[in-house]
Amino acid sequence: MLSSMALRSAFKSTSVVLRECGVLSRLKGTCASLQLKHGAFTSVTTGPSHSNNETALTGIGSFTIQSVRNYARVVRKKKPVMTSQLSDLPPTMLKMEYAAVPLAQTADDLVKRLLTLELASHSEKLKLKTEQLIAKVQRDEADRSSTEVKVAILTSKIRNYQEHLHKHTKDKANKRWMLMAIDRRKKLLKHLRVTRYDAFERVCQQLGITYTFPPEYYRHATRRWLAKKALCIKVFKEVQKQKLEQRKKMKQTPPPTLAEPARTPATGTQ
C-alpha cells in the first residue's frame, strides 16, 4: 500500500513539473533536462541567469526565462506622392471674380491675401483651374457648350476625383462618379474623333489626354460560356458533315428519267 501511494505521488509530481516546464519553454525559456533523485525534482537550465527573470517553484527548483527577442517589423510600402492639378496655381494669383477689378492690384497686403488664392478654398481653386482648361480648347470667348469645352470640364472633374481617391481609397461613391465621368468623356472624344479629327488631336494635346482605342470585342470568359461555345462548335461541325454526306449521295445517284407520254395519231377531217 505504501509503495503504491508513493508511486502515485511521484507520478503526480512529475506531471506537474513537465506541465510547468512546457508552459515556460513555450513562453520565453527552454527546459534542458529533468532529473529524478530520491523523490525530489530539480531542473537544469541553460543560458545566463538573472535575478529578475528567475521564477522559484517550491519543491521543484527554479527556471530561467530568456529575454524577449525584438524581431524586425514588416516595412509598409509608402504610397507614391500624387501631384495635384492645382499645384501650378501660384498663391499670388487673384481669384476669378477679382481678376478684372483694377483696384485689387493696388489694395493693401492684408486685402490682397483675401483676394488671392493664398486663403482660397479648394472649390475656388478648382473653378479657376477649370476656366484655364476651357480657355485652351474653346472655339471663341463665348463658347461654353461645345464638345471641346465639355471634355475640358470633365477632365478637371476626373482629375479631382483621382486626387480624392488617392487619399481616401474606400470612397466608393467618389469612385462611381469618376467612372461615370470617364465614360461620358470617352463618348464625347469618340464623337469628336469621328466628326472633327483635327479638333480631337488639339484637345488631346492641350489637355494631356492619352486616347486608347477600345477592344473590338470583349467578353468575360466564364466556364459556362466556354462549355457552351465548345458545344456549339461541335454541333456546327456535325451538321456540316451531314450536309456534305447528303451532297455526295445526291451527286452519286443519277437523276430519275421521266416516262414520255404515248403519242396518239392525229385524225383530221377532210
Automatic annotation (TrEMBL):
Molecular function terms from GO: RNA binding; structural constituent of ribosome
Lineage of producing organism: Eukaryota, Metazoa, Chordata, Craniata, Vertebrata
Annotated region (Disordered), positions in chain: 245-270
SUPFAM superfamilies membership: S15/NS1 RNA-binding domain (SSF47060)
Similarity comment text for this entry: Belongs to the universal ribosomal protein uS15 family.
Gene3D superfamilies: S15/NS1, RNA-binding
Signal peptide: none
Annotated source species: Oncorhynchus tshawytscha (Chinook salmon)
Name listed for the protein in its UniProt record: Small ribosomal subunit protein uS15m
Main location: mitochondrion
Superkingdom of source: Eukaryota
InterPro entries documented for this protein: Ribosomal_uS15, Ribosomal_uS15_bac-type, uS15_NS1_RNA-bd_sf, uS15_ribosomal
Compartments where located: Mitochondrion
Pfam families listed in its UniProt record: Ribosomal_S15
UniProt GO BP: mitochondrial translation
Keywords, in A-Z order: Mitochondrion, Ribonucleoprotein, Ribosomal protein, Transit peptide
Entry GO terms, CC: mitochondrial small ribosomal subunit
Cited HAMAP family: Ribosomal_uS15_B (MF_01343_B)
